[in-house]
Amino acid sequence: MLSQIEPGMLLPKEVDLISFVVVSCKKAFAWTQSECGSFSQEYYPDYEIPTIEYMPWQQALIWILNVLIEEVKKEIKAGVKAGRFKPMTFSY
């Protein structure tokens, strides 16, 4: 592991510190997949994250046929002019 550190990247004191930590705490590292473990359920019991049923915050889009787009635009503009709709500039 220490041979993979590029020369000059760490000071000799830093390399010594890494060596000390790795050797003194070697049981804390999982070097292979078989050494991986989990926390004791005595200290960390399983927990359940409560969720709520999903409710869409907007209605589904109403698709307009390409043939009708110009007619729909005219109706919307007329509705804005008549005060039935309020013009908005932000997206949803």
Q: Total strand count, please? A: 0
The H/E string reads: HH
In percent, how helical is the residue content?
A: 25-40%
Residue runs with pLDDT of under 50 for 5 or more positions: none
Helix-and-strand structural type: mainly alpha
What's this, in brief?
The chain has 92 residues and is mostly helical. The protein has helices at residues 12-24, 69-82.
SSE layout:
Layout: H1 12-24, H2 69-82
Give an overview of the whole structure.
Helices cover 29% and strands 0% of the residues. The chain is mainly alpha-helical. It has a domain at 2-34. It starts with 11 loop residues before the first helix and ends in a 10-residue tail after the last helix. The model has no long low-confidence stretch (mean pLDDT 83).
What descriptors fit this protein?
mainly alpha; single chain
